[in-house]
Design brief:
Mean pLDDT of chain A: 88
Mean pLDDT of chain B: 89
Shape of chain B: globular
Shape of chain A: rod-shaped
Radius of gyration of chain B: 24 Å
Helix content of chain A: 40-55%
Strand content of chain A: 5-15%
Largest interface: A-B, 67 and 69 residues
Number of strands of chain A: 4
Largest sheet of chain B: none
Distance between the termini of chain A: 16 Å
Oligomer: heterodimer
Number of strands of chain B: 0
């Protein structure tokens, strides 16, 4: 029982989507699909769960807001309160209106950069990383589907792919 | 795939396949640069070098070499800073706000507009970093522990808000732009014939492969970045306006400043996008992607924001009269009829009257006219900042402090230098980076491409009868 890896190449998004859906309905697992542009609905069609990256942005944003609040409270209220233009600095809440812009900026700064760093690390995209697409044409105009299956299912899946409109099929 | 109404005009003209889009976008990068490109680059670099010379002279001698004086202590530096930052705003508006509104026409222009944002903010940064007088101590702007106590920076000050706003804006815009560029760099990498190009674009593309998982994260990241950048871009120019509005100087101390500055920023930014893209579409033959319809959409934004700016000018005048405060009234009278009346007249003509010509469809779809208008608007918006700063400061409360301002040779030199730097970077960008976000464009080809739209329309009619 050896494993077979099938690379099916499609010329367009519609046959790709249709094949992905029919393969999934047969219970066949699609490992990944490489496309030149984001094909809407493809991720759900091949069973990729919704990304949680937006949640991380929210958490980073909260962190940014808290750090900015802590910083300004410490510097302007606790460590060295100064009378600037008569703005009260006895307690944080009195001086807070003047701190809103920087709290906002720090929230955006941390949310944006935190999320983007998470995105690059989660996708493992860094300078010098080897190209992840198995075929260089997938960044131009070809769509490549990767299926990992058992040797005995191979011919069945291949005929399904061919009927679905795959123009090339390769074994890896 | 999305369906799009037949009434909407196609955004990609001609019969294009995915591969042809790739070819069209990559042509300026893989081909040889034209004579015009070298010519423009040479002029830009000369201006840039001249600017570096004047900048070095300023650092060596101090800001006394500028025309600024004791009364008019903000002049060319802050005028140019606000002008450049404002220009930058259109890039973020196109890439973020139009993304949230799902405007597909942004896809042909967002890459170049974001590049413009980044280079414009770099130009703006030069002025703020230099106007502190001792730029080698600019790290004092950040809340770092120090040996003065620690004496902290003042978080009550709008100037401090500006430090945070501009640095956040620059770094977030840069990251947003680069994240969008990664799939396009991968496309160039995968078809590069020369090993050096493959190596360089390989490093810059971070190993992108276009996996469905990565695309779904990519889209989520773009959406969230757009959601974060939208309030960010409004906050940046609002904060810039509070540099003026929280001061007690008559003519500056008004609550209308934040929305008025933001509208002006978008107005001048769109004008700069038009200036750049009308040249780019011509020299790189991108007429099928940056169509007359795109130009028209941008001109409509110019009418809207130009009219908002016009209403703001008139509101300011009315409120200064209605306030009954004579200092306030004088400030505006002085702007319009004082020694700098010509700057005020230039501002009013360029910003309020001339954009109204775009109500004529013939004019807003005419490239030559649009190009000339885009430059007029940018001149007008430069004068707006000049009018806010110089005529106001030259006649404040105490008549004994009144004096005139005229820019020095060095002032002009640094300003010209930033224009040179901006165009040098932009020209290099158009030569080595994909000018249009081709991956995104491919995704709308079937809903907004001319060929497909015509096919769908014919199909729809057949089904109807």
């Amino acid at each position: 029982m050896s494993k077979a890896v099938i690379h099916a190449i499609f010329d367009d998004e519609e046959p790709l989507m249709a094949s992905a859906k029919s393969l999934r309905s047969q219970g066949i697992h699609i490992k990944d699909v490489f496309t030149p542009f984001p094909v809407h609905g493809l991720d759900t069609a091949i069973g990729v769960p919704r990304t949680r990256i937006a949640i991380t942005a929210f958490i980073y944003g909260l962190t940014g807001a808290s750090l900015a609040t802590l910083m300004m409270w410490y510097m302007m209220i606790s460590d060295w309160p100064t009378d600037v233009g008569g703005k009260p600095s006895f307690a944080y809440y009195m001086n807070m209106p003047a701190f809103i812009p920087i709290t906002f900026e720090a929230t955006v700064l941390c949310a944006a950069h935190g999320m983007v760093i998470t995105y690059y690390l989660r996708c493992w995209m860094l300078p010098g990383v080897k190209a992840k697409n198995p075929d260089p044409r997938t960044t131009d105009d070809k769509f490549l589907m990767v299926i990992e299956t058992k040797e005995e299912n191979k011919s069945n899946i291949e005929s399904m792919l061919k009927n679905g409109g795959a123009t090339e099929i390769h074994h890896k | 795939m999305q369906h799009e109404s037949e009434i909407r005009e196609p955004l990609i003209l001609g019969k294009k396949s995915y591969h042809e889009i790739t070819e069209d976008i990559v042509r300026p990068i893989e081909g040889k640069a034209s004579k015009y490109w070298y010519m423009l680059l040479t002029i830009s670099i000369i201006c840039f070098l001249w600017g570096i010379g004047c900048l070095a002279y300023t650092i060596g001698m101090g800001i006394g070499v500028w025309g600024s004086n004791n009364g008019v202590d903000w002049a060319f530096d802050i005028t140019n800073f606000v002008w450049w930052i404002g220009i930058g705003h259109a890039g973020t508006l196109i890439s973020a706000v139009l993304l949230l509104f799902r405007q597909k026409w942004r896809m042909a222009i967002n890459r170049a507009a974001e590049a413009m944002t980044i280079f414009a903010v770099m130009c703006a940064a030069i002025f703020v970093l230099l106007h502190t007088g001792r730029p080698w101590l600019d790290y004092w702007l950040f809340p770092l522990p120090n040996q003065f106590g620690s004496l902290w920076v003042n978080f009550n000050s709008p100037l401090m808000w500006d430090v945070f706003a501009v640095s956040t804006y620059f770094s977030v815009s840069l990251v947003f732009w680069y994240t969008g560029l990664v799939p396009d760099f991968a496309m160039i990498r995968d078809r590069a014939a020369k090993p050096l190009a493959r190596k360089i674009y390989g490093i810059m593309s971070f190993g992108w492969g276009g996996s469905a998982r990565h695309w779904s994260r990519f889209e989520e990241v773009s959406l969230v970045l757009a959601g974060l950048s939208t309030p960010l871009v409004f906050s940046v120019h609002s904060i810039v306006s509070t540099d003026f509005a929280t001061a007690v100087v008559p003519g500056w101390h008004t609550t209308i400043f934040p929305p008025y500055f933001v509208a002006g920023a978008v107005f001048s930014g769109f004008a700069m996008v038009l200036t750049l893209l009308i040249i780019v579409r011509k020299i790189y033959s991108l007429e099928n992607y940056i169509t007359i319809k795109h130009i028209e959409y941008m001109n409509i934004v110019i009418i809207v924001t130009g009219s908002i700016v016009g209403v703001a000018y008139l509101t300011e005048l009315f409120i200064s009269w209605y306030s009954g405060v004579e200092y306030e009234q004088y400030a505006f009278l002085n702007r319009a009829t004082g020694p700098y009346w010509w700057a005020y007249a230039a501002m009013m003509t360029c910003n309020v009257i001339s954009p109204q010509l775009f109500w004529f469809k013939k004019l807003r779809t005419n490239l030559t006219f649009t190009f000339i208008m885009s430059i007029i608007v940018n001149i007008g918006m430069w004068f707006e900042r000049f009018v806010i700063i110089v005529p106001t400061l030259c006649r404040t409360y105490l008549p004994s402090t009144w004096n005139m301002y005229s820019p020095s040779f060095i002032d002009w030199g640094i300003y010209t230098g930033t224009i040179g730097m901006f165009f040098t970077f932009f020209l290099l960008f158009t030569r080595y980076f994909p000018v249009i976000a081709q991956a995104e464009l491919k995704s709308i080809m079937k809903s907004s491409g001319q060929e497909y739209k015509e096919k769908n329309a014919a199909h729809g009619h057949a089904a109807h009868h």
